[in-house]
UniProtKB/TrEMBL annotation:
<protein>
    <recommendedName>
        <fullName>Serine aminopeptidase S33 domain-containing protein</fullName>
    </recommendedName>
</protein>
<dbReference type="InterPro" id="IPR029058">
    <property type="entry name" value="AB_hydrolase_fold"/>
</dbReference>
<dbReference type="Pfam" id="PF12146">
    <property type="entry name" value="Hydrolase_4"/>
</dbReference>
<dbReference type="InterPro" id="IPR022742">
    <property type="entry name" value="Hydrolase_4"/>
</dbReference>
<feature type="domain" description="Serine aminopeptidase S33">
    <location>
        <begin position="35"/>
        <end position="253"/>
    </location>
</feature>
<dbReference type="InterPro" id="IPR051044">
    <property type="entry name" value="MAG_DAG_Lipase"/>
</dbReference>
Length: 296
């Protein structure tokens, strides 16, 4: 296990029940006992859920940052069909409602960063480019996410067939814990996590493709509002993500204002590597700086 650099201090954890489209979802919150100077809203990946952040949340709280994680519909302890991602409007609506709750909780003065990891980055990009999303936020951070992956690996005919697929047949992503981390304890946790979603229905992949189409639509990047700072963070290499391909999409989405940052690891899930604390501290500082820029 990675050594603890500093023990959590002023930390409180809550699970807030949110009802969205008739389904009860679990919004997890780690918050300082004192005033929160900012907040990070985290979009988890395909198989993970808020339980994967049991060490990360307290560290953000120690930095006076409130840390929100929504268990996606059908994931973690949220309601909904396991292994099934609903239609675009439903999933985007879930996130829009949860982010709006986070904004109300922290108030109008604290900066809010939206942080998407792996598949969560695609959900984040789709949310940002959905015309119905109007919640104010100060920054967007994409971590180890392959933006536009299905468009990159599938040809036009394959994408058309995928878009038309409404099958409930399971599809296995083939994810390996060794790609996420070198740490044996974390690998054991991933391999034996009863709440992990390891398969999706084939119609769910059609939804993921539709999400990509939402943020890859021509002209969408230029019309997105508000115009906030954005960053793409990753390791030096990634066994799951084509970093060169995703960074090209990232810079297309955020032309002239996209920051890229690499941490010294070759594993996919940075929070389960030695760079965890540095990533938490960088994200905290990046979030707080947006509040300073707004006050100037």
């Amino acid at each position: 296990m990675i050594e603890t650099r500093r023990p959590p201090q002023n930390v409180r954890r809550e699970i807030v029940p949110l009802t969205s489209g008739g389904t009860e979802l679990a919004l997890h919150l780690w918050r300082p006992r004192g005033r929160s100077k900012g907040a990070v809203f985290y979009f988890h990946g395909l198989q993970s859920h808020a339980g994967w952040l049991w060490e990360v949340g307290p560290r953000f709280a120690d930095n006076d940052i409130a840390f929100f994680v929504l268990d996606r519909r059908g994931s973690g302890i949220s309601g909904g069909d396991r292994r099934d991602v609903p239609d675009v409007d439903t999933i985007v609506g879930d996130y829009a409602n949860a982010v709006a709750h986070a904004r109300r909780w922290i108030g109008d003065d604290a900066p809010l960063s939206l942080f998407g990891h792996c598949l969560g980055g695609s959900f984040l990009a789709a949310l940002l480019h959905h015309p119905g999303f109007t919640v104010r936020h100060e920054a967007a951070i994409f971590c180890s996410t392959w933006l536009g992956r299905l468009h990159a690996v599938l040809g036009e005919e394959e994408r058309a067939a995928l878009a038309a697929d409404r099958s409930l047949e399971p599809w296995d992503a083939g994810l390996k814990s060794a790609d996420f981390t070198d740490d044996p304890a974390y690998r054991h946790f991933i391999d034996h996590d009863d709440l992990a979603v390891r398969q999706l229905t084939r119609r769910s992949r059609a939804t993921l493709l539709a999400l990509e189409r939402l943020y890859l639509a021509p002209g969408r990047a230029e019309t997105r509002f508000p115009d906030v700072p954005a960053a793409f963070v990753s390791g030096l290499s990634d066994p799951i993500v084509d970093l060169d391909a995703t960074r090209r999409v990232f810079h297309d989405l955020f032309p002239g204002r996209g920051l890229t940052l690499q941490f010294p690891t070759d594993r996919h899930y940075l929070f389960y590597t030695d760079v965890r604390d540095d990533l938490v501290d960088w994200t905290s500082a990046y979030t707080l700086l947006q509040g300073l820029d707004r006050d100037v």
